[in-house]
Each structure stands twice: as structure tokens, then as C-alpha cells.
Design goal:
Helix 1 runs antiparallel to helix 2 and helix 2 packs antiparallel against helix 3. The longest helix is centred in the N-terminal third of the chain and has 26 residues. Helix content is about 30%, strand content about 25%. Strands 4-3-5-6-7-8-9-10 form an eight-stranded mixed sheet, with helices on both faces. A five-stranded mixed sheet has the order 12-11-13-17-15, with helices on both faces. A two-stranded antiparallel sheet has the order 1-2. The chain has about 350 residues and is α+β, with helices and mostly antiparallel strands. The structure holds 2,6-di-O-phosphono-beta-D-fructofuranose.
Length: about 350
């Protein structure tokens, strides 16, 4: 039996020690989120038993059916954060507007955004789902938090992470000092350091995309994806296809094994499907910290300045050379046609 392990608490505190000016607030906030994710993990494990699967009977702001676990996970995270005095405002993929901290609680210097249960269409089939979070330092000078505190480009994130509820529960986070992964040991209820300083391969093995949308992409994107499969003269060594349809699970596999995940714009989703603030930006921060990269096809995700809370973006993320290959293919196509890039096929 191993007698020396690194818990997430110890790891976060060790990292904080490198910054003598740190107050410990961010560390505690990360720990609050880790605790919330353990409660969500426990709820997911019990889901099949306590019959809480299925739609909760109303639609969320994206027009999607809400699953009961989405609602539960959303509540769990908000309840774990609102009373701490560390947060000034929250934003959730499940809520239309920013979520103020209730007046009876104090506010702190951080704005937290989260997708409480991403990939929720997978819940009923027992496939992996996840929680994604993103933390910004507030920019408003006083009072309670406002929209301006959450509408910040991804490069301003102070921390981001995700929790994957799979065959085991894993938490991966970054504060800008590399990306680190922890696995929940259910016997002691602690996240233990299992993947320190993750570095994703420069060239990946996998490509992950919903290819049933192929006919809805523009020609340039079609060419790029064919290239990933090695089907074009300018293409790469063919990659293997893997697509779960759960961003956290698809991203995590590619992060560890190497690969590229794409959710391009298409005729049904002209701005892309995924949300900039809840999905793309936090994943992009982690990808870059693991030496990968993330674009909307051409532009760095972390540089996009959001104009609305639920803004969507195309996303191309993963191994650096693969993401670069797609950008090159899109640029070439644009220069050949002389037209704009990434316009969906009419
Ligand atoms: P879901 O709709 O199940 O919540 O943005 C949500 C998301 O899942 C991502 O997790 C996933 O990568 C993507 O949508 C899957 O979309 P498609 O079903 O259109 O492939």
C-alpha cells in the first residue's frame, strides 16, 4: 500500500506557497469546486439507482432539454460557492443571466463561470460527462459583481479546469503553471495527484468530430478533416477517429493520448455549437498549459473578447501541430478562393 500521496489540497497549497503575496482565496475557491465535484460525482454514481435520470421538464437557455442531473449539478456548484465570500458573481451554462451572490453573503474578488454537467445527452446511456469551470479576477471596482466581470477574454483566466465523471472521477486544472490531473480515490474521498504537469503530444493519434455534420461544413473545413484522415495529397499521416459527443471526455482522451477535437461552424450552427465562456475558453487554457493549442479554426480562442454570456464559437483544440494543420488548410482554401473563410455551405 502506498503511504505517501499528494492530495489536491496539498498540491494547491504547495503551488500557492510559490507566491508569497497570495491570500489563499484562489486556493480555497479551487478546493470549494473540488468539493462540489465530489458531491456531483456521488449523485451521478447513484443516478441509476434513485431514478433521477431523464428530463427535468423544462428547457434551458440554449433550448435544450434539461436533465435532472444538470439541475442538480448547477445547484450543487452554486450552493458551494455563494456563501464563501470569495466570489462576486457567477455564470452558469444553465442560467440565462449572471448569478448574483445573495445579499446575505459577502462578495470576494473572483468571478466564476461553469458548465455544471457538460455532455448531458450522454447521461441516460451511462457515458462520461463532466463539469467545466473558469475563474476570472473581477474587473469592476466595487459593489457586487457585474456582467463585465464575466465577459473577459480567456487569456485573463486565473484558473480553469474540468472534472470528468467516467470510469473514475478525474479533475484537471490549471492556474497557469501547467495542467495537472487528480483522480478521486473513492475509498478515502480525496482527489490524489495522478497526472502532474500534463504535456499533450505535439501530433496526435486521434481526430474527434461529429462527422454526421460533414455536409453542413464549408468546403475548406471538409478538406481539412479529409486531410486529418490522410485522404488528401497535402494531408497528414491518417488519424484514427474517436468521438463520444461529450466534450470533457473527448478532450481528455486527446489531451492524454494526443489528438484534435473539432466542433466547426455549420449550416445549423453558423457560430459553432460550443459556448466560448463555459467550454472553449477553459479548455483552451488547459490545452495551452499542456503545450497544445486551441483556435476557432484560425484565431486563438484565448484572445476572443466575449460580447455575451452564452456566445458560441467554433472550436479546434488539441495537439499543436494538428490544430496548426487545420488552420493552414483553412488559410490555403481562403487564399485559393479569395473569399471569406469558414462560411458554412449554403
Ligand atoms: P451535450 O449537447 O450532450 O451537452 O456542448 C454540449 C455538448 O454535449 C458537448 O459536450 C459535446 O462535445 C457536443 O455538445 C456534442 O454535440 P453533437 O451531439 O452535436 O455532436
Amino acid at each position: 500500500m502506498q503511504t505517501s500521496v499528494t492530495t489536491i489540497e496539498r498540491f494547491i497549497l504547495d503551488q500557492e506557497d510559490r507566491y508569497p503575496e497570495a491570500t489563499g482565496e484562489l486556493s480555497n475557491l479551487l478546493y470549494d469546486i473540488a468539493l462540489a465535484s465530489k458531491i456531483i460525482a456521488a449523485a451521478i454514481r447513484r443516478a441509476g439507482l434513485v431514478n433521477i435520470l431523464g428530463g427535468a421538464g423544462h428547457r434551458n437557455v440554449q433550448g435544450e432539454d434539461q436533465q435532472k442531473l444538470d439541475v442538480l449539478a448547477n445547484e450543487i456548484i452554486q450552493n458551494s460557492l455563494k456563501h464563501t465570500g470569495r466570489v462576486c458573481v457567477m455564470g452558469s451554462e444553465e442560467d440565462d443571466d449572471i448569478i448574483p451572490v445573495p445579499p446575505e453573503y459577502g462578495v470576494g474578488k473572483y468571478a466564476v463561470l461553469f458548465d455544471p454537467l457538460d455532455g448531458s445527452s450522454n447521461i441516460d446511456v451511462n457515458a462520461a460527462v463532466g463539469t467545466i469551470f473558469s475563474i476570472y479576477r473581477r474587473v469592476s471596482m466595487e459593489g457586487r459583481g457585474r456582467s463585465v466581470d464575466v465577459l473577459q477574454p480567456g487569456c485573463k483566466q486565473v484558473a480553469a479546469g474540468y472534472v470528468m465523471y467516467g470510469s473514475s472521477t478525474m479533475l484537471v486544472y490549471t492556474t497557469g503553471q501547467g495542467a495537472h490531473g487528480f483522480t478521486l480515490d473513492p475509498t478515502i474521498g480525496e482527489f490524489l495527484l495522478s497526472h502532474p504537469q500534463i504535456v499533450t503530444p505535439r501530433v496526435g493519434t486521434y481526430y474527434s468530430v461529429n462527422e454526421s455534420n460533414f455536409g453542413r461544413w464549408d468546403k475548406a473545413m471538409q478538406h481539412a478533416v479529409r486531410g486529418l484522415k490522410g485522404d488528401t495529397p497535402d494531408g497528414m499521416k491518417p488519424k484514427n477517429s474517436r468521438y463520444i459527443g461529450s466534450l470533457v471526455a473527448d478532450f481528455h482522451r486527446n489531451l492524454i493520448a494526443g489528438g484534435i477535437f473539432l466542433y466547426p461552424a455549420d449550416t445549423r450552427n453558423p457560430q459553432g455549437k460550443l459556448r466560448l465562456l463555459y467550454e472553449a475558453s477553459p479548455m483552451a487554457f488547459i490545452a495551452e498549459q499542456a503545450e497544445g493549442s486551441a483556435t476557432d479554426g484560425l484565431n486563438r480562442i484565448l484572445d476572443i473578447v466575449p460580447h455575451s454570456l452564452h456566445q458560441r464559437t467554433p472550436l479546434v483544440i488539441g495537439s499543436r501541430e494538428d490544430v496548426g494543420f487545420v488552420a493552414d488548410a483553412l488559410r490555403h482554401a481562403a487564399s485559393r478562393s479569395g473569399g471569406p473563410i469558414s462560411q458554412p455551405v449554403p
